[in-house]
Amino acid sequence: xxxxxxxxxxxxxxxxxxxxxxxxxxxxxxxxxxxxxxxxxxxxxxxxxxxxxxxxxxxxxxxxxxxxxxxxxxxxxxxxxxxxxxxxxxxxxxxxxxxxxxxxxxxxxxxxxxxxxxxxxxxxxxxxxxxxxxxxxxxxxxxxxxxxxxxxxxxxxxxxxxxxxxxxxxxxxxxxxxxxxxxxxxxxxxxxxxxxxxxxxxxxxxxxxxxxxxxxxxxxxxxxxxxxxxxxxxxxxxxxxxxxxxxxxxxxxxxxxxxxxxxxxxxxxxxxxxxxxxxxxxxxxxxxxxxxxxxxxxxxxxxxxxxxxxxxxxx
Length: 315
Ligand SMILES: C[S@@+](CC[C@H](N)C(=O)[O-])C[C@H]1O[C@@H](n2cnc3c(N)ncnc32)[C@H](O)[C@@H]1O
Description:
By secondary structure, the protein is α/β, with parallel strands linked by helices. The chain is built from 10 helices and 11 strands.
């Protein structure tokens, strides 16, 4: 059978599947091509004949896709910031929109003498690995409650040969005490869907990605983020940053929550994807210094200059 005919059949099958939320233009064609490339080992010549065994295998994979299974769970990998990451059933698949979270962290870490970062709810490690790869000498830790996710993250670190320590644990609970007050940046892309909204999440996501990666089962969906906002100051160095990725329509709430928790310079940043934002906030911790004859004031070591381009503050 010719590759072109197979692709046409696959695109039609995927396009008519009610289990898929066909929101992306050309997404069905893209899925059909990705799966065929996966079967043929990246060779995709539309006029070429596909061997019978590959046709059978392709049909089985397309059928899995029509049942809603994410492409990355089927192929076993995804790409994030140029990194090829292993993923699979039982883990959250990193989204392109999260590249903005990694970018925000990198801008704040570059130029520091001993840059340190913690990525909370790291999943298979996209943000932590991108930071470690792009910030020379960075000391990066990734944490997640999911053993399965941390298993994938460690495998990714080994395959990519990128030095990140991945630990299983609730939020910051497994960070060594000696690190208190020394972290430059904490990144978090945690669940933020309220328990009542979970029923509105498309089956394609809710049926395949773990519930604990989508919701904390609180009413607002923001209890984990709130808890993190209370725990983070203990770990951040003076003027260190907490960066939280959330859906655009939750960013105002998260910004308010961070201001109430005492953070400074809180803003919602836009990285080009209309459905997500990264709320950035600076910890106010720091040594209290008393200038001669003056009143006590907090010291803020200078930050490396941030050449933030293309950032729109929506708040
Ligand atoms: C939306 S996923 C994001 C994963 C990853 N940051 C990414 O962008 O691909 C949220 C992650 O938070 C993790 N998580 C949920 N509750 C957590 C907790 N209490 N402490 C640490 N991680 C948690 C989940 O297991 C999941 O991997």
